Amino acid sequence: MEFNLSEEQNLLIDTTKSFVKAELLQHEELLEKTNNLPKELYDEIKKKSIEAGLYACNMPTEHGGGGLNAFDLTLVEKHLGFASLALAEIAWRPQNILMACEGELVNEYLKPTITGERKDCIAMTEPGAGSDLRGMKTKAVKDDNDWIINGTKHFISNAHISDFVVLFASTGEDDKGRNLLSCFLVDLKQKGVEVAKGYDCVSHRGYVNNILHFNDCRIPARNILGEKDKGFELMNVWLEATRLTVAATSVSRAERAFDIALDWSANRKQFGKVIGKFQGVSFKLADMATEIKLGNLMLMESAWKIDQKTLTSQDAAMTKLFCTEMLSRVSDEAIQICGGMGLMADIPLERIWRDARIERIWEGTSEIQRHIISRSLLRPLGA
Amino acid sequence: MKILVTVKRVIDYNVQIRVKSDQSGVETDNVKMSMNPPDENAVEEALRIKEAGKADEIIILSIGEEKSQETIRTALAMGADRGIYVKASNDTEPLGVAKIIEKIVDKEKPQLILMGKQAIDDDSNQTGQMVSAKLNWTQATFASKIEIDGDNIKVTREIDEGLETIKMPLPIVATCDLRLNEPRYASLPNIMKAKKKPIESLSAEELGIDITPRLKQLKVIEPPKRSKGIMVADVAELVQKLKNEAKVI
Ligand SMILES: Cc1cc2nc3c(=O)[nH]c(=O)nc-3n(C[C@H](O)[C@H](O)[C@H](O)COP(=O)(O)OP(=O)(O)OC[C@H]3O[C@@H](n4cnc5c(N)ncnc54)[C@H](O)[C@@H]3O)c2cc1C
Ligand SMILES: Cc1cc2nc3c(=O)[nH]c(=O)nc-3n(C[C@H](O)[C@H](O)[C@H](O)COP(=O)(O)OP(=O)(O)OC[C@H]3O[C@@H](n4cnc5c(N)ncnc54)[C@H](O)[C@@H]3O)c2cc1C
């Protein structure tokens, strides 16, 4: 076990922090006030993130990506996650599921997504199928050399600025009558696809979700990712890592909230003393710092395990569960410590607190994580 | 043309400095260390000169304890070509540092030496000037603008009266001000490339230089706490307070 970071890892952190400080933080207020990320600003930051090598740093070097391993990527994601999500995600890391591209799909989708010429989004969730993805109703039916797709997806992040979607749809049933899923690449500008406005969300201002309607949308047969009916296998291989992205940003924002509370405790005076002198405040700080440290250790261990190819779904679930719930507790206590000022938009705490809320829901709700953990504990005992 | 840039590893400017309880110095254990900020400006300027096609090679020199090599690596990741590390105690005095730089200049023959105007740890603001004296080279301190023009160099300096622009033939020693430029951050591909760039390792003894301290540090103490400001009602009260309480007029 090695807990020290290498020279390069420290440099990666320095660069990411400098990027966040120089290019992102000054725009947070605009996003909070307008709930809108202007196109010109998006383009400018995107260009800079490509120059900095942060864009697509998760993708393999042979296709033009940054080639970071999971551990180094997690360091980058953590420090990018310090900034408001809509800004941090401009330094886009394409869905790693695109590495399943084969044949012509590599040049058509994978490579241009890495260079930033095209952008991907991912659609699994439907109005009737959230946690229970197997219940999805969107269907893909083979017709000669095409797939014909019908159905509706909702809560689809960033579809309005994406060129294509990694789409999961039902392609049949197994002998027990359970839905079988497959994964497709679908251009969003093509006939039969409608990208509609989504909902207004309490978390992450400026971060857009959309509703996608597919009406007899025809795509070529080769636009299937992986094998037909093997959609769940594909999810298991590629989507575990995105749970760590959520955990990484959660740790970073918890640290940000904590630092504000710590500073406040050391300077705010009541009853003739700085409030940090009261155990009612100082013990909160001690608990917050301990929880953050724990989250960080879980996060980095899980990232390390991805590189060792030993990460289990239980590991990923525990890390996602703990880090996101920890962020909620820490941001709530940070507000408590700052009193009335903690609620005011003058300092970023109320935002971190609002933004924390979604982290326990997307990429698998806390309950689903607990379900995964408990199942892996009990199943070997036959329960 | 070769440019030699010197970089020092210092406590990061964001860190709240704490004096050790035995008054022997400041706490450095578990404290974040970084490149001295004006040295970053020096590295940035060298990179810009090279990018403009006016220099061929940028050599980074750092003098200090082992970890100073990380600071060299940072400069290499920003884009410099190679590094020289000279092992010495971290509190080597400006004169000792100047002597080492003199030796490295003999060996590397740069035409331009870019340094920070001062290091934010001891704020000596002496090393550049001493290097200039040791080498008998022209010096341009507190540079806020640098232009290379053939064999000459034009430097705009910040002085008490405002800005002064001087033109000199190379070689020179310039010390850089924070206003000189906005240092870049290393891109990820450059960080990966920096891994493979060479850092030569030397020591003061190997170079045959005597860097034993000439000064003795008695103790390090915290500056007195600043007392709170006050509001005055009018100019008359202000003048009265400046005269009788602050005793500055
Ligand atoms: C802003 C935003 C952006 C999103 N972006 C995307 C995207 O880009 N692509 C995409 O595909 N999806 C996206 N999602 C969807 C997200 O992943 C889902 O919201 C999430 O999976 C939960 O599904 P649901 O909202 O339908 O809740 P439901 O599944 O309806 O859950 C409701 C409640 O029931 C609980 N529950 C459900 N099943 C169980 C069980 N078996 N045991 C115990 N409790 C249970 C849940 O934990 C939850 O508390 C996004 C969501 C949001 C809010
Ligand atoms: C929207 C809004 C409207 C308001 N409207 C009014 C109004 O109309 N009129 C009015 O007069 N006020 C109003 N208030 C003020 C409100 O009552 C105060 O915010 C509240 O009393 C807390 O004070 P504070 O914010 O200064 O926090 P602080 O008193 O600075 O407290 C900061 C933290 O220190 C803790 N703390 C302080 N002392 C101790 C101690 N001895 N031991 C342990 N912990 C301690 C607190 O519990 C808190 O966690 C309003 C506040 C808000 C946010």
Overall description:
The complex is a heterodimer of chains A (383) and B (249). Chain A is α+β, with helices and mostly antiparallel strands and 383 residues long. Chain A has helices at 7-24, 28-34, 39-51, 70-80, 85-88, 104-115, 231-238, 240-267, 279-308, 313-338, 349-359, 366-378, and strands at 120-123, 139-143, 146-157, 164-173, 179-187, 193-197, 209-220, 224-225, 269-270, 273-274. The mean pLDDT of chain A is 96. Chain B has one domain: HUPs (Rossmann fold, 3-Layer(aba) Sandwich), CATH 3.40.50.620. Chain B is built from six helices and eleven strands. Chain B has helices at 37-51, 68-78, 94-108, 127-135, 188-194, 235-244; strands at residues 2-6, 9-11, 33-35, 57-64, 82-87, 112-116, 138-149, 152-159, 162-169, 172-176, 199-203. In chain B, helix 2 (68-78) packs across helix 5 and helix 3 packs across helix 4. Chain B is globular. The mean pLDDT of chain B is 95. At the A-B interface, helix 1 of A face helix 2 and helix 5 of B. The structure holds flavin-adenine dinucleotide (2 copies). Residues 121-125, 130-131, 155-157, 201, 209, 358, 361-362, 365, 367-368, 371 of chain A line the site of one flavin-adenine dinucleotide.
List the helices and strands and how they pair.
The complex is a heterodimer of chains A (383) and B (249).
Chain A (H helix, E strand, L loop, with lengths): L6 H18 L3 H7 L4 H13 L18 H11 L4 H4 L15 H12 L4 E4 L15 E5 L2 E12 L6 E10 L5 E9 L5 E5 L11 E12 L3 E2 L5 H8 L1 H28 L1 E2 L2 E2 L4 H30 L4 H26 L10 H11 L6 H13 L5
Parallel strand pairs in A: 1-4
Antiparallel strand pairs in A: 2-3, 3-7, 4-5, 5-8, 6-7, 9-10
Helix pairs in contact in A: 1-4, 4-8, 4-9, 8-9, 8-10, 8-11, 9-10, 10-11, 10-12
Chain B lengths: L1 E5 L2 E3 L21 E3 L1 H15 L5 E8 L3 H11 L3 E6 L6 H15 L3 E5 L10 H9 L2 E12 L2 E8 L2 E8 L2 E5 L11 H7 L4 E5 L31 H10 L5
Parallel strand pairs in B: 1-4, 1-6, 4-5, 5-11, 6-10, 7-10
Antiparallel strand pairs in B: 2-3, 7-8, 8-9
Helix pairs in contact in B: 2-5, 3-4
